[in-house]
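User: Sequence in, structure out. Go.
Assistant: Echoing your sequence, followed by the structure tokens.
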Amino acid sequence: MLRFCRTFTSVGKLPSRAISNRVIIPPKTHNNMGQPTLKSLRGDYKQLPENSNFIDKFYHELQLFHDEFLVARLNKHYTDFEENPDDLVFELEKYVELHVIPSHSVLTQKSELMALGANLPVVHCETLGDKMVIERFLEFCRSVRYTLRLNGGHSFIFDVMLQSNSVFQNFEKSKCQQEKMAN
């Protein structure tokens, strides 16, 4: 009989795929690095395919970005970016770069690129959890952009998703409380 035992130990700093002080390019009106902007793709709302779970797995990030940045700092909701969805992606990229990465990483000045003459500091994460948070937010940003491309650039879907998730969570809580009261 085989037994598997897995452990994880690390004494080194974990490099992330994120690079600090990245240049975030503001939305343009015609193209963005050779790709059409989300605003230019804007059209009728298109229902997302049933098997597309690329944004459904990011409820926590949707809520966190909404509460900590959109409402708290910009006094906006996802629906407010309906006219220009590129601005939503730009604000999300700024949030990741200015809030998520600095709070989950340590900036160091040593890197292989600096040995080659490039003066780019690298982001290092002290724990695997911090690295996973950063990479999850980077994936969330890509998923938001992809969702907006698929549904015709309509950002209201994110507010709808948060509202329906909130209603579902409240229903589950009340159902659980009723079951406890019955027992």
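User: And one key feature?
Assistant: The two ends are 43 Å apart (CA to CA).
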